[in-house]
Specification:
The protein has 923 residues and is α+β, with helices and mostly antiparallel strands. The protein is built from 27 helices and 34 strands.
Length: 923
């Protein structure tokens, strides 16, 4: 390449080269817009050669060329360098005659150029970077017409506009509205060479329009035109007066002589249909007659600006919509020109953060300086990384300083606009104030963290836990790290896998779920629990989120199960026929409800020193029995660790028991049974389980009492049958004894009636099965009243005053009645002179029941003796009937005592020993 001429190598060269670099136009392929411009220039100027050339430091490169083959030439052969020096339209009528160009190889040799006209391409920064020129091989002494010159300048401006638009398109490819506007201007600029021309001869009143002008007014090629009849008539009514006034002002010789107006043309029938928007410019041509100037003609051009006006209206609408959107949003929208480091903010910067426009420095540094110091380095590194080329989109949450000095939590995001070569040109984004949202989110997090139910957020597609609150960790007995980031699958027992997988498939398919269900989970320690789960899934943008609220209802389910079990127990015990069946029913329900293999009931004999628990053989458990006899409920989670049961630890270990829950069954203060649940491993007994076993024990006790009551009723019925058989015998004996030594029938009758009434009272007590407490002596006397025949000394009662309970009184009356009946049949009451003595005493001794080795503590014991004398010789009976059994077992069994019968020849003796508390019981 050649060295540039001296007139080009000037201080402005650096600016030109920089401008060319900004346009990025050099060595690019041909483009229709530029090719159209040179074609129009050649046509306009009737030239065989037309070029758009750009001048670098050592060459002239042609973006568009017509009639000239080379794509570029050296600056030593360039004609356009002279145009750049002139900075205006340069016309050289004869290149061979001009000293600047006659030596140029293109002039001196082929293609022997002779005429040149070139208009500079000047940037908005007033830097000439090239030319639009036409060349002819023939000299043109007349140069170009004014219209051609104006058209060439217009085309040069058009080419420059195209370059501007081309650069803007590359820079602002995302701004489609601006791109459309630029394309509209480019199209209008390209068509500028075809502008319509008008010539209004003011002397003759003749108006002349070319074809383009006629088309804009809807006038045919052969129609005549006039100022008033055509021009004014074809203007839109709203524009007519204004445009006429502008024309008249331009025709004033004393004025500037310029006409510039924009108006609408309409069709000829004046129906208001607009043909086009037209921009008209004209110049008044004056004639001078000495000092007088007269208006001669008005000459000018018209241009169709319909598309431009439409685009302007659309742009205005777009700008208005943008303005309204930016006002309506709380986002602070920013536009950062990265090359100039200029930032433009919308009104929300003041509305949301208090920064008045005059207080804002429009630079990126001002923005970074207002990022919280702790966040600044991270924010700057992040946005610089994106600007440098690592992606197009940027987003960051940080703290931004408000005008009052406080900080707002913000979410900032932006997009980088790059040039064709990837150079970052600008960045557009929006800053959203998250302060309130974060405050509410913090409150919500606090609620979630402190909630009394477990909460977990789940990815429904993978079933991975995203977040879990402390309550859920407590429910599952796990750390947060055991849950978050892990699959929810592992917390469901395999027995429930089918139900679990069905639910997971629904969630993964995107189904919106709002359900409450009860399901089992396996805690980290392996224990199964029941939970109530409120499951909610929802769509958030393109994502689906699922949240589960989990409540431990194990205790609730257990309580329901225990309540159901108690109902079942009641139904079963109601129909149970005996103690064995009661024990079997209770054991089954206890074991199933408490999920234990060993649970049940066991009977404990009075004074027993051993205990049977489950299927193991009876074994001594002294510490356990001592506490049970005190009525204590045993709820021992670990028998090996209870010091109070240390003496029994080896025994429990031998039968494989580590945890025991036992409720004693008591009767009249004595231990008669045990309802228990046992476990082979340590187990904490929950209060609900203790209450359940206690309730079972209570119902078992009631059921056993019912069985005992029914047995007692059967016993009384048999006694009634026996007593009825003896009634006549008793009546006969009473009559016989009453009438034995009677001398006065009336007295005998009265005594007989009294004794029969006493017999009736005793029989009433027998049939009623109930009575009230009474003195011991009164009970005995009442039972013997019917046998008192008035003979002195026949009945003797002796002993301290004692009060006996109703049950003891009835049993004692029955026993005394039976002894008296036997005495009336076979003993002292059967003969005159027979005697019966009943005496009783109270002593304090260590009580030992008959047939048992266990000795109780020292307590009051009553000894009652029935002694007969003066009757027939006594012989021991060869068999024992109901009466004998009643004597031996009835009273002693009712009060927990013992009875001994002595059949001495001189008379029967019956000795009864019983604890005083048995006689005093009110039950």
């Amino acid at each position: 390449m050649s060295r540039p001429p001296d007139d080009l190598a000037s201080p402005g060269e650096a600016e030109r080269l920089a401008a060319l670099a900004r346009y990025g136009i050099l060595d690019t392929p041909a483009e229709d817009a530029f090719d159209d411009a040179v074609a129009l220039a050649a046509q306009l100027c009737a030239a065989p050669i037309a070029l758009i050339g750009l001048l670098t430091s050592d060459r002239q490169w042609f973006k568009a060329r017509l009639g000239f083959a080379p794509a570029e030439i050296g600056l030593d052969r360039s004609l356009c360098v002279h145009t750049l020096a002139e900075r205006d339209l340069l016309i050289i009528a004869d290149l061979a005659a001009d000293p600047r160009t006659r030596a140029n190889p293109l002039v001196a040799h082929e293609p022997r150029m002779r005429f040149y006209a070139g208009a500079p391409l000047v940037t908005p920064e007033d830097v000439a970077i090239g030319t639009l020129c036409v060349v002819d091989t023939e000299p043109r002494p007349g140069g170009l017409s004014a219209a051609q010159a104006a058209g060439l300048r217009a085309l040069a401006r058009t080419a420059m506009t195209q370059l501007e638009l081309r650069r803007s398109i590359a820079v602002r490819k995302t701004e489609t509205a601006i791109l459309a506007d630029r394309e509209l201007h480019l199209r209008l600029a390209v068509e500028a060479a075809g502008a319509g021309i008008f010539d209004y001869d003011l002397v003759t009143g003749t108006l002349t329009w070319d074809g383009r002008t006629r088309a804009l007014f809807g006038v045919g090629p052969d129609e005549g035109v006039s100022y008033a009849g055509t021009f004014l008539a074809r203007l839109h009514p709203e524009d007519r007066a204004r445009t006429d006034a502008a024309v008249q002002a331009a025709l004033d010789p004393a004025g500037p002589g310029l006409f510039d107006a924009t108006y609408r043309t309409v069709v000829g029938d004046d129906d208001g249909t607009v043909i086009a928007w037209v921009a008209a410019r004209g110049t008044l041509v004056l004639e001078r007659d000495g000092a007088i100037r007269r208006a001669h003609r008005l000459v000018g051009t018209v241009r169709d600006v319909t598309a431009e006006r439409t685009a302007q209206a659309a742009m205005a609408a777009t700008e208005e919509r943008y303005r309204l959107v930016t006002r309506a949003t709380n986002d602070a929208i920013w536009d950062w020109d990265l090359a100039a480091d200029h930032v433009l903010w919308n009104e929300a910067l003041q509305a949301a953060y208090g920064w008045a426009p005059e207080a804002v420095e429009p630079t990126g540094r001002w923005w970074l300086d207002h990022v919280h110091p702790e966040d600044r380095a991270g924010v700057e590194a992040d946005i610089r990384r994106v600007i440098a080329g690592e992606g197009q989109e940027w987003r960051h949450e940080y703290r931004f300083r408000r005008a009052d000095g406080s900080y707002a939590d913000v979410l900032d995001r932006g997009s980088v606009v790059r040039g064709p070569d990837g150079t970052p040109l600008r960045m557009i984004g929006a800053m959203l104030d998250l302060t309130e949202r974060n405050r509410v989110a913090a409150q919500l997090r606090a609620v979630v963290e402190g909630a009394n139910i477990g909460i977990v957020q789940i990815d429904p597609r993978t079933m991975v836990a995203l977040e879990a609150n402390p309550k859920l960790c407590a429910i599952w007995g796990a750390e947060e790290s055991d849950i978050v980031g892990q699959s929810m699958v592992k917390w469901t027992p395999e027995a429930d896998a089918a139900e679990r997988d069905h639910l997971h498939r629904r969630l993964a398919a995107g189904e919106i779920v709002r359900e409450t269900l009860e399901k089992r989970f396996r805690r980290k320690d392996g224990r199964l629990i029941w939970c109530r789960v409120n499951l909610v899934s929802q769509v958030r943008g393109e994502a689906i989120q699922a949240t589960a609220m989990i409540e431990d209802i194990t205790a609730e389910k257990a309580a329901e199960a225990r309540q159901t079990a108690l109902i079942e127990l009641g139904d079963g015990l109601r129909d149970a026929a005996g103690p064995a069946e009661i024990h079997r029913i209770a054991a089954g329900i206890l074991g199933r409800t408490l999920a234990l293999a060993e649970a049940g009931c066991t009977a404990i004999e009075a004074g027993a020193d051993a205990l049977t628990i489950g299927r193991a053989e009876s074994a001594p458990f002294p510490a356990t029995l001592a506490r049970l006899r005190r009525g204590e409920i045993l709820a021992v989670p670990d028998l090996a660790g209870d010091p109070g049961l240390a003496p029994d630890a080896a025994g429990y270990a031998a039968i494989g028991v580590r945890a025991l829950l036992g409720v004693p069954l008591m009767r009249r203060g004595d231990l008669v049974g045990l309802v228990y649940a046992r476990a082979p491993e340590p187990r904490p007994w929950e209060p609900g389980e203790v209450d359940f076993v206690r309730e079972v024990a209570g119902r078992v006790s009631v059921a056993l009492a019912r069985i005992q009551a029914e047995e007692q009723q059967r016993f009384l019925n048999r006694e009634l049958s026996h007593r009825l058989k003896n009634t006549l015998t008793m009546a006969q004996a009473i009559a016989s004894q009453t009438l034995r030594n009677v001398s006065d029938i009336a007295v005998a009758k009265e005594a007989l009636v009294a004794r029969l009434v006493a017999l009736g009272k005793a029989h009433d007590i027998l049939l009623s099965g109930e009575g009230e407490g009474a003195a011991l002596e009164a009970v005995i006397a009442g039972a013997l009243a019917i046998h008192d025949d008035g003979e002195p000394g026949r009945i003797h009662l002796s002993g301290p005053a004692l009060e006996v309970g109703p049950k003891a009184a009835l049993s004692l009356a029955l026993m005394i009645h039976e002894l008296a009946t036997n005495a009336a049949k076979y003993g002292a009451f059967s003969v005159p002179g027979g005697r019966v003595g009943v005496d009783w005493a109270v002593s304090h001794v260590r009580w030992r029941e008959e047939g048992r080795d266990e000795v109780r503590e020292v307590e009051p014991v009553v000894t009652l003796t029935w002694a007969e004398s003066g009757g027939p010789p006594v012989a021991a009976p060869t068999r024992k009937g109901f009466g004998s059994r009643l004597i031996e077992r009835g009273f002693s069994g009712a009060v927990g005592g013992e009875t001994r019968m002595i059949y001495a020849r001189e008379g029967v003796t019956c000795r009864i020993r019983a604890p005083l508390k048995g006689l005093l019981e009110k039950e």
